[in-house]
Each structure stands twice: as C-alpha cells, then as structure tokens.
Automatic annotation (TrEMBL):
Organism: Eisenbergiella tayi
Keywords, ordered alphabetically: Membrane, Transmembrane, Transmembrane helix
Transmembrane segments: 47-66, 72-88
Tree of life domain: Bacteria
Keyword Transmembrane: yes
Name of the protein in question: Uncharacterized protein
Length: 96
C-alpha cells in the first residue's frame, strides 16, 4: 500500500493540471470575446446616434405627459431622458 503523502501528492498534481487547463481555456475565451466587447467605430457611432434620438424622444414624451397632467410620469420620463442624453453625449465625446 502507498503512503498517504503519495496519494496527497498525486491528487495535488492532478488538481494543478486541471486548474492550469481551466485557466488556459478561460484566457482563450476572453481573447475571443474581445471583438464582441468593442464594436467597430461605425457601429459605435450609429448606436450613439440612435441612443441620442431615443433620449430626445423620452424628453419630448415627458413633456407630453406633463401637458396631460401626469406629473409623476412626466418627471420620471424626463429624468430618464436627460440621464440617457448626458450619457450618450459623454460617450460621443469619448469616441471622437
């Protein structure tokens, strides 16, 4: 029968090999997703423009709600529109 320390050593080696294999596959997956996380400049600009239009639509929609007397809905919609607009403007300046 093998001593207990030899079983421990073989289990530790197996664990280290498995950990190293998992680490390599994780790094490979992260390298493949790099393209997905960073869209091309053209797509980024189009997305920012679309987001700007949506935010302006939210602000205008909030104005309509305010006109109809739905103050709570109006303030919420305007707030979301302003936050979205400011976020899009800061992103637009960053990508220029």
């Amino acid at each position: 029968m093998k001593p207990l320390s030899e079983y421990t050593r073989s289990a530790l080696e197996l664990s280290e090999k498995t950990t190293e294999k998992l680490r390599r596959s994780t790094h490979a997956a992260l390298a493949k997703t790099e393209k997905i996380r960073r869209p091309s400049t053209g797509i980024d600009k189009k997305g920012t423009a679309a987001g700007g239009l949506v935010s302006i639509g939210l602000i205008l929609g909030g104005g309509v709600w305010l006109f109809w007397g739905k103050t709570l809905w109006a303030l919420g919609t305007i707030a979301v529109g302003v936050i979205s607009f400011l976020s899009n403007r800061s992103h637009h300046k960053r990508i220029k």
